[in-house]
């Protein structure tokens, strides 16, 4: 292929990647529209338990599988028993984690409070991506116990890594801001104890926020450019 043509292909590929943001692959999303994905709490869709794909989600730990189409982003995992998500009464499920590297990222054992078993609710993910906050939700049926096998979609792309960070953009979304509770990054000021991240997931061997609190914006320009270039090359290879 002529150099010019391959350069054009590369540009087209990277443009497509930027538009797609991210997908929630498990549990199945209540709706994906890349243009609406910046709209909280659920990416422009309101869960409807009469028509949506309502998935059993084990309170003791279950898969949340994501595909990030940006080279970096920081994830907030949260859930609520409010079936619309509108009351903004979310419980954070694990410390915020920064994904570095484009592609699939799966938490195999996200847990919710045990007392939720037998009730319906929403599992929500929010990413602080280079182009802002993006949202997706799944309608779920919380069931007792822990998942006994992993979904086939629960994989990490090669080269993808995760590290615990604190993210000022995600902190206000972590425990909701209803009922006059002020939430700070360390999760101590919330009005109700159940709303702070008292739930530990399968990743409990990692110390909370052990990694340096470095978020996207502070990466030196040189390495950020290298990551973007690597991502562009990666996406071009995927198309070929
Ligand atoms: C519901 O989700 C499952 C698991 O992802 C999927 O296989 C199935 O096609 C979905 N059904 C509908 C109606 O979306
Ligand atoms: C918020 O959710 C918790 C369960 O996590 C529930 O006990 C509480 O009643 C809810 N608060 C409101 C105002 O709905
Ligand atoms: C799911 O996958 C993770 C990561 O590979 C593994 O540690 C865990 O044991 C698996 N869980 C089950 C129930 O097989
Ligand atoms: C994917 O990577 C994250 C961060 O390192 C890790 O916590 C998780 O267990 C990995 N998932 C799988 C399926 O191995
Ligand atoms: C919650 O946060 C949103 C966005 O910052 C804000 O518009 C809203 O007024 C807040 N609600 C309360 C009750 O503080
Ligand atoms: Cu995006």
TrEMBL record:
It is found in: Cell membrane. CDD domains: LPMO_auxiliary-like. Pfam families: BIM1-like_dom (PF20238). Keywords: Cell membrane, Glycoprotein, GPI-anchor, Lipoprotein, Membrane, Signal. Residues 181-211 have a biased composition (Low complexity). Residues 181-215 are annotated as: Disordered. Residues 1-20 form the signal peptide. Its main location: membrane. It comes from the Eukaryota. Residues 19-159 form the Copper acquisition factor BIM1-like domain. It is a lipid-anchor; GPI-anchor. This is Copper acquisition factor BIM1-like domain-containing protein. It comes from Sporothrix bragantina. The lineage of its organism: Eukaryota, Fungi, Dikarya, Ascomycota, Pezizomycotina.
